[in-house]
Design a protein that fits this description.
Elements lengths: L1 E2 L11 H12 L6 H7 L3 E6 L8 E5 L4 H10 L2 E5 L4 H13 L4 E5 L16 E8 L3 E5 L7 E5 H9 L10 E5 L11 H13 L7 H11 L3 H4 L3 H13 L9 H14 L3 H30 L3 H24 L3
Antiparallel strand pairs: 1-6, 2-3, 4-9, 5-6, 5-9, 6-7, 7-8
Amino acid sequence: MTMVKDIDARGMQHCETTALGVLLRHEGLDLSEPMLFGLGSGLSFIYWDSKAMGFPFLGGRVKPFELTRNLAAVLGLELLVRETTSPRKAWQDVAAPIDAGRPVGLQLDSYHLDYFTTKVHFGGHVVAMYGYDEQDAYLVDTAPQGGAVSTSLAGLARARAERGPMSARHRSFTITAPSTPTSPQDRIIPAIKTCAHAFLNPPIANLGHRGIEKTAKLVPKWLQRSDNPREDLPRAAALMEKAGTGGALFRNLYRDFLVECAQLIDSSHLRTGHSLYSEAATLWTQVAALVATAGESGDAENLRQTGAILHELSRIEHDAMQALSLL
């Protein structure tokens, strides 16, 4: 058995921030999950639908691995990323750092992980790996998935090799902190402004505040959009609240990030952003509840109310990011 020593195997709410937390704590940098998410400019919005999809997808964060790249750039970390089409090389890319005493981040498809409670394909899942033996790999996943967990090496290989939406080619990564690390406090304002600029200036109407407004117009028709509303709508609601988002489609995490920032930086713009995102987080939880009820009851009035709230959310989040862009 090969294990990295002194691993703090602390599971958080979201997969990518959980893995980043493990790797950074091993480098001596211990940040809260909201701070990791916020410094990585993680908040976003996307409405994703196509003829090939059974039902629309609502996303509340930047695309997989962008948060990791953002965080490394902001904090001046050395991020070493490896990808390959060879399963043999992929294993070497993981075993070598662990043999040398360094944990490794992996992007993979959660469907093939033995411990995973919900068997759905998701190629953007991220875990930290800190050990292995002849049969199993030892990982850190989110707290809801068990925190410190293990899966068979065969299952891990399948998870890493899976192709599909948001998947990567056996992606693995390590992080090294500089001898004199950048102060996270000094990078808060640039990270917030980067996030605000992207949210306020989306390149297409499916993203940012424009994406929320588009969703407001489309969601009242979701009962007709689905072949199985009793299954599709409650699942969409669960993805907003429970699927590693920290609740409220990641708005709880960003609200809590802004709370931490306000304790470090005295700014009326920051206080305004926090107040508005506190309101938005509450409304997103209401949206999820209404969508679930609509699917269970078949009552379109719930979706009409959802559309009205989403219209308001587009305005609230626009105003919040507008205030934060003035930092």
